[in-house]
């Protein structure tokens, strides 16, 4: 469907033209385009002369056209468009109006307003053209109010800390956030109740803000250069980190007079980077730049930071010293532990599994394990044994009775092989043998 023409009202004010646009179908009961705020308005205007060149400008429903010549007739027509749907409407009928003279001296007004933003800190600057003492009041307007089909002239608000100042700049960061856009203007006051409002300047924070240089800290580990990057704005720059997706361009080089190697570039999206394969005993210098691809912005490079790599022999000595310290520590712990385990093993073996050592005069018997005093041994059966002594007499030989008696005494001493039952029998046999000898 075709978008109809909008309505237009013109009012000359102090050399400017105040314009108010009504959306298409404003006076109709049934509307095809329900959301009036979705319209964007394109204004075409020109001087009412034969050789005038038309000019085009995007405007809000209520806006002011300045920079016009006084006492000059201008003609205007407006078109309503829907950029999202790619549709353009019909132009309104042409309306013409004559401008008036400015009521105040232009020199009193603050001129050349500009906003400088760095790391979400915004300062408004202007120029003073008046020779007499002037006081300034800075005012701001939330940009969303201009999109409404209402007069916003009474909704300007003073910026805290920027009232009745005699300087030509003011910090306006306290009223600017990243949720929208703003307009700023300066009201100048001089003697005899003279005042003048400057032209407006638009502030789109994320687009106008400039990114400052990041912070850089260097460290050396073995043959690696560690680079720690602090985002722009420092520890308090959370607004920068929350609203910009930053990447970093690292520029590093050998700071040596006899080294002709050029600087190298490394890009990263992290705040920690590592440069490998460093030369020993070499001074390396680094500087970093912050980048925002979404807003096509880049910071200046950070200050140059340099660090010296250690000598080549330092690394093997460190490794050797570490190995020796670790070896001594292992020996100090392992040797006492092995000694304690060995002693415990010997004691346990001696108590539970002792070894018997037979006398040397006993042959034919090997060593055997003795029963442990802590373990019960099975009882062996014992048999009663007796020895029958016999005597063989040879003719022509005499036997000394004393030697026999001594032999008999020795036999009695070895009582392991005799018992009490055959003791009397042995005694009788000895007495009979003695009598026969006699």
From TrEMBL:
InterPro entries: FN3_dom (IPR003961), FN3_sf (IPR036116), Ig-like_fold (IPR013783), Interferon/interleukin_rcp_dom (IPR015373), Type-II_Cytokine-TF_Rcpt (IPR050650)
Tagged with keyword Cell membrane: no
Any GO molecular function: type I interferon receptor activity
Gene Ontology annotations for the cellular component aspect, listed alphabetically: plasma membrane
UniProt keyword Transmembrane helix present: yes
Record's protein name: INAR1 protein
Domain Fibronectin type-III: 210-312
Pfam families: Interfer-bind (PF09294)
PANTHER family referenced in this protein's UniProt entry, alphabetically: INTERFERON ALPHA_BETA RECEPTOR 1, INTERFERON/INTERLEUKIN RECEPTOR
Ranges for region Disordered: 405-438
Organism: Neopipo cinnamomea
Domain of life: Eukaryota
CDD domains registered for this protein in UniProt: FN3
């Amino acid at each position: 469907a075709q978008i109809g023409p909008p309505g237009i009202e013109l009012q000359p004010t102090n050399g400017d033209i105040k314009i108010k646009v009504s959306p298409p179908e404003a006076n109709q009961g049934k509307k095809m385009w329900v959301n009036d705020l979705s319209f964007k308005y394109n204004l075409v205007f020109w001087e009412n002369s034969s050789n005038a060149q038309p000019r085009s400008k995007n405007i809000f429903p209520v806006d002011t056209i300045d920079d016009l010549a006084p006492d000059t007739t201008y003609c205007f027509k407006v078109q309503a468009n829907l950029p999202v749907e790619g549709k353009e409407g019909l132009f309104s009928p042409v309306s013409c109006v004559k401008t008036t003279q400015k009521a105040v001296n232009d020199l009193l007004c603050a001129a050349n307003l500009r906003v400088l933003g760095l790391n979400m800190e915004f300062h408004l600057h202007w120029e003073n053209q008046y020779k007499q003492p002037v006081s300034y009041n800075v005012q701001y307007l939330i940009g969303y109010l201009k999109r409404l089909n209402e007069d916003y002239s009474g909704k300007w608000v003073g910026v805290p800390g920027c009232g009745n100042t005699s300087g030509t700049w003011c910090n306006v960061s306290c009223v600017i956030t990243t949720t929208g856009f703003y307009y700023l203007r300066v009201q100048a006051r001089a003697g005899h109740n003279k005042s003048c409002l400057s032209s407006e300047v638009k502030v789109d924070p994320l687009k106008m803000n400039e990114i400052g240089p990041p912070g850089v800290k260097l460290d050396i580990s073995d043959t690696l250069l560690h680079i720690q990057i602090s985002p722009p704005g420092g520890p308090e720059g959370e607004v920068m980190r929350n609203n910009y997706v930053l990447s970093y361009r690292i520029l590093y080089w050998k700071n040596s007079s006899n080294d002709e190697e050029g600087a190298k570039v490394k890009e990263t999206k992290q705040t920690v980077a590592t440069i490998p394969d460093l030369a020993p005993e070499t001074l390396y210098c680094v500087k970093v730049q912050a980048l925002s691809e979404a807003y096509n912005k880049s910071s200046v490079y950070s200050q140059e930071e340099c660090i010296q790599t250690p000598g080549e022999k330092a690394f093997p000595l460190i490794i050797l010293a570490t190995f020796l310290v670790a070896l001594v520590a292992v020996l100090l712990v392992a040797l006492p532990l092995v000694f304690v385990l060995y002693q415990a093993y010997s004691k346990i073996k001696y108590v539970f599994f002792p070894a018997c050592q037979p006398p040397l005069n006993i042959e034919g018997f090997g060593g055997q394990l003795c029963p442990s005093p802590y373990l019960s041994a099975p009882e062996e059966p014992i048999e009663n044994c007796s020895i029958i002594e016999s005597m063989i007499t040879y003719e022509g030989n005499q036997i000394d009775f004393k030697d026999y008696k001594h032999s008999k005494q020795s036999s009695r001493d070895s009582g392991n092989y005799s018992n009490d039952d055959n003791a009397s029998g042995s005694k009788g046999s000895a007495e009979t043998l003695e009598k026969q000898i006699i």
